[in-house]
Amino acid sequence: MKDFNMDKETIVPNFDDIRPLTNDEVKDAIEELIANEDFERAFRYIKPDLDWAEFSKLMRTFKTKEDFKAVLAYDIVMMVARNTTFSLTVSGRSRLPEGHVPCTFISNHRDIVLDAAFLNVMLYDVGYGMTQVAIGDNLLIRPWIKTLVRLNNSFIVKRGVSGRQQLEASALLSAYIHHTIKETKESVWIAQREGRAKDSDDKTQQSILKMLNMSGDKQHILTNLMNLNIVPVAISYEFDPCDFLKAQEFQQKRDDPDFTKSKRDDLLNMETGILNNKGRVHFTIASPINGKLERLDNDMDKGELYAAIAAIIDEEIYKNYRFYPCNYIAYDLLANSNRFSSHYGLKDRKQVEGYLQGQLDKIVLPNKDEAFLRTKLLEMYANPLKNHLSVNE
Q1: Local confidence band at 6 (pLDDT 50, 70, 90 cut-offs)
Q2: What DSSP element (H or E) covers 255?
Q3: Which letter does DSSP use for residue 131 in this model?
Q4: Contact 247, 377 (CB under 8 A)
Q5: What domains appear along the chain, each with residue ranges and CATH number?
Q6: Would you call 375 exposed, middle or buried from its count of C-beta atoms within 10 A (0-12, 13-18, 19+)?
Q7: Least enclosed by CB within 10 Å: which of 59, 116, 258, 294?
Q8: Average pLDDT for 303-324
Q9: For 335-344, which contacts have Cβ atoms below 8 Å and span 24 or more sequence positions?
Q10: How does pLDDT run across 227-243, given as a tens digit for each residue?
């Protein structure tokens, strides 16, 4: 096991609502989890042959969050990768700052749980160390889930609050991220937008950048964000297990503008994303953006400046996607063209068509609009390629 020095760990008290656990809190958290029947059921769902007594004994050996992450969390994520992916790969490791400088990794967002989990195990494997992970409180559906993610070094993003409360929550989150990068010297991961881009049209929300600028020297936006060492990450899944659920949600929102997902829907999305086939999965660590930020003018109109920063992040992500036959086929099917036919054969097209129909068949709606749903599925696989072309042509 790699050695992590946690002597530097300090927690400012006003972060208590959102911070991960401290190492002093690990023992009690583990006992709480071991005693929780829902937690046991969840783990048995993933590992049906689990010996709970042996598992509990293993859990009690973890004295720090780093012990837990490096052994149990790592093993569980790699088991998921072995069982549900054809391959899990990373490129761009040479772009990581030398000397383990803490970074703010900002990525597109495909899977609720696995985007950050996969990134962390790959960073760990190359000796860079795992990140702290931003997770929305809407996903903390059970008390044990909140305990588990905090044990796994996640910090909480408060959602579903409005007005002044939202402003206060964003300011606290910003302060915590700056504190983590500058004081505890740990990297963080945050998605480029709130929630997943259901149609895979990945665009960095300016609100994320504005939140990051709420702490530190707010008047010097560029310097303030440069202090966070932003590194974009492009995530490419060959198949998205939740694609049919996302398509279904598009129709539900089309037919009922007031439709909102339930907690049960969130749980189903998490389970589906974790347990089902993803094919090939690739992460590309893109170039840190500080060099490009230096070339911007801090005296620009703030709206234009945030838009320019978002465009820089987007361009790095778009340039670094990895594509599979399904992306090229989806593009050609939507465009009624054969522009990318050199990237796939008849066998590929037949397999992708069969996959899409199988996903459509899983959707159960009273007024199922199959043509609409199929278009939405195709857009999910074509949009990354469209965005890639937009910055490379």
Answers
A1: very low
A2: helix 243-255
A3: P
A4: yes
A5: 13-238+278-322 (3.40.1130), 240-276+323-393 (no CATH)
A6: middle
A7: 258
A8: 98
A9: 340/385
A10: 999 999 999 999 999 99
